[in-house]
Design goal:
This protein is an alpha+beta fold and about 220 residues long. The protein folds into two domains: about 1-65, no CATH class; about 85-215, Sandwich (Immunoglobulin-like), CATH 2.60.40. The chain has helices spanning about 1-10, 15-35, 40-65, 85-95, and strands spanning about 110-120, 130-135, 140-155, 160-175, 175-185, 200-210. The termini are far apart.
């Protein structure tokens, strides 16, 4: 058993395989010539040819097995954490129960004013934005609003947007009234460096992008 294993290991060397194949082909051709030329030794010549051909085939098979690359390791899908937006899930649920809620108050009837940034933990950072939200509708109470927030950094009269955020929040603003609201700047999930760093003067642009006015039975 050990001898067979040693022979197989030696056959895996390219130089030895080529020499062995060449020798076997020579033996095959000589045996075939003898079998054709002499009736007396034809039987033995054909037996030698058969054995040589079988040996050549075995050597070729072993060489092909050596050239087969190992199978790739199974790929493991990368798992990415996703932040679950519970506010959006809640809004989607209410939209199914009250499909007309998003049409009762037009976006043009809602506006922000007195927009002020807040942030004292680190210089040059903003933790939240406070504003006064006006509901100019004469009939319906604003129960939820969607917004688009942009933070610009103004240096030498040149303002560059360095952060933006979309979101939705709940409120309760009766017709033709206003309420103060606070929008938190989303922090990094890792809790390391802040999302942005102000080099100059901040300029906050806050605009409504959607409204909801749910029926009283759906509002907590």
């Amino acid at each position: 058993m050990y001898a067979l294993h040693s022979d197989a290991m030696r056959l895996r060397k390219p130089g030895l395989r080529m020499k062995l194949e060449l020798m076997l082909w020579v033996v095959t051709l000589v045996a075939l010539a003898i079998a054709i030329a002499s009736r007396k030794y034809r039987k033995y010549g054909l037996v030698v040819v058969g054995l040589a051909v079988m040996t050549i085939v075995a050597v070729v098979v072993l060489s092909k097995q050596d050239n087969i690359p190992p199978p790739d390791p199974p790929s493991v899908p990368t798992q990415q954490s996703r932040r679950v937006d519970f506010e959006q899930l809640h809004v989607d649920k209410l939209d199914k129960e009250d499909p007309e809620a998003k049409n009762r108050i037009a976006v043009s009837e809602v506006r922000f004013d007195q927009i002020r940034p807040y942030g004292d933990s680190q210089p040059g950072t903003i933790e939240s934005v406070r504003a006064r939200l006006y509901n100019d509708s004469a009939r319906f109470t604003l129960t939820d609003y969607a917004y688009y927030l942009m933070v610009q950094d103004c240096v030498e009269k040149v303002c560059t947007t360095i952060y933006d955020q979309r979101g939705m929040a709940s409120t309760m603003v009766p017709p033709t009234q206003a309420r103060d609201v606070t929008i938190q700047i989303r922090a990094r999930e890792t809790g390391e460096a802040p999302l942005f760093k102000l080099l100059g003067t901040p300029k906050i642009i806050l605009s409504p992008s959607g409204t909801r006015s749910y029926k009283a039975a759906l509002v907590p």
